[in-house]
Every structure is written in C-alpha cells, then in structure tokens.
Amino acid sequence: MPILILILTAVGGAIWFWIRSNPREAIDVAADAATTLRNAPRRLAFRKQTTAHPVEGIDDPRIAICAIGQAFIELDTLPTSEQRQQLHDTVVSTLRCAPQEAEEMEILGRWLMTQCNGAESAVPRLARRLYKIDGSASYPTVQDVLAKLVQGELSSKQVSAIEDIKSALRV
C-alpha cells in the first residue's frame, strides 16, 4: 500500500509540474480528452455490430439524410467548396441542428459514403437504412435537402439516385 501511495504521489507531482510549466498545452490536452469522451458513444455505436456494415449502425435519420446529401453532390465529380458550404447551410436549416453538429454529420456522412465504396452505391443503401429507421416519413425532408443542392439540370446519375431513393423509401 505505501508503494502505491508513493507511485500515485510521484505521478500526481509530475502532472502538477507539467501543468504549471505548460498551461496552454495542458488546456489543449484537456479539450482533446473532452472531445474524445463526447464522441465516444457515436464510435461505440459502430462497434456494437462487428459483422454489420457501418450504415446499419445509423440510428438517427438526420445522419442518414446528411449522408445522402453528401453522396448526392459527389455523384458526378468532386464537390466544390461552394457545394460543400451549400450542403452545410442546408443541413443546418432543414434539419434544424447546430453548425458544429452539422459539420460532424457531414464528416460522418462522408465516411459512410466511403465505406459504401462510392456515392453511387451509398445512396440506395443509405435510403434503405433511412426507411428502416423512419419509414417514408422522412421523404419530404430528403426532397427538401436535395432540391436545395441541385444547381442547374440534374445529371443522369442524380436522376437515377432520386429514383433509387423513391424506391427505397417506397414513395
């Protein structure tokens, strides 16, 4: 027991000395630890089902809708910064979420899209998952998000994606 107290005292002293000599770095480390703890439940949700595809771990329809929007703008070419900003603004306004939350959903949506091996295969898979979560009730929201993202005419891939979404959501 005295050895354990000695070790804990030495570790505590080392931490105290480090905080006193590098307060800015200590604050950054504490902020990083808080961010890691805040994001842990989302990461754990994907670890629960080890044999399932990551899309099957989605339980929030807003994440699925954001991921569909992300895949929709990447169907033809890589999106421009204006298209990404437009997606961000659309997600914030249509899904009624904070800008930071929208940014997290966009990053998660981009990752989910890469897990589906591209935008073309991601749209139907995400739409099927959205149907399992929310049924056909979320189709108007998806329609609003996609309508705000369309610039000019729809490409053939985008038309096909909309048909896939309608089919998956049984509209």
- The proportion of residues in beta strands is under 5%
Q: Structural class per helix/strand content? A: mainly alpha
**Rg on CA atoms, Å:** 22 Å
> Helical proportion?
over 70%
Distance between the termini: 68 Å
Number of strands: 0
Could you describe the largest sheet, including whether it forms a barrel?
A: none
Mean pLDDT: 86
Low-confidence parts lasting 5 or more residues at pLDDT below 50? none
Short précis:
The chain has 171 residues and is an all-alpha fold. The chain contains 8 helices and no strands. The chain is 76% helix and 0% strand.
Question: What key phrases describe this protein's structure?
Answer:
elongated; 171 residues; mainly alpha
